[in-house]
Amino acid sequence: MIMAFILAKAMRLVEEKDGLKGTALFFPFHHAVVGGVGDAGVEVIRIHAGEDIGVADIAKALNVSRRTLELRFSEILERGVGETLCRERLDRVSRLLRETDRTILDICFDSGFKSPSYLKALFKKTYGMTMSEWRGRGGALVQGHEGL
Fold it and tell me: What superfamily does domain 89-136 belong to in CATH?
């Protein structure tokens, strides 16, 4: 009976098209039931990091308050939702730089970043080199930088 209720609620949430600027977030609802809000949040981030989403969108997709979502992330991952989203986006950028010849501008926007200059500064701070240098080195880290 409870599972039927959860599945019905999940289907309604997926069918709602007004949740995220015209599209609904998709995530495996069994994560929210079995693994908890933190696991489900990580899954939503993994799937949708390249889209124009934020913490409020993730909380809405999981049908929890932003505060509850932040608390679960802090308990489980010892970091916030925004930082987790940013890390996933940076990971996508580093992978795309290593595996494709797409332009940095394309990679920036396809990874969910809105500002190329912000991404460039964040990437250099995180990886210790520019995105062009990263691509030229095949994704090898500079000594003394841990990356993500």
Answer: Homeodomain-like (1.10.10.60)
Q: Which residue has the higher pLDDT, 14 or 118?
A: 118
pTM here? 0.70
> Quick one: 11 exposed, middle or buried, by C-beta within 10 A (0-12, 13-18, 19+)?
exposed
On whether the CB atoms of residues 107 and 97 are closer than 8 A, the answer is yes
| pLDDT of amino acid 142 | 54
Q: What is the DSSP letter of 135?
A: H
Contact 9, 63 (CB under 8 A): yes
Asked if residues 69 and 55 have their Cβ atoms less than 8 Å apart, the reply is: yes
Per-residue pLDDT for 65 more than 80? yes
CA 53/CA 82 separation, integer angstroms = 10
- Per-residue pLDDT reduced to its tens digit, 30-62: 344 334 777 888 888 999 999 999 999 999 988
Domains of the chain, by residue range, sit at: 2-78, 89-136
- Assess contact for 116 and 105: CB atoms under 8 A: yes
**By 3-state DSSP, what share of the chain in percent is helix, strand and coil, each rounded to 5?**
65, 0, 35
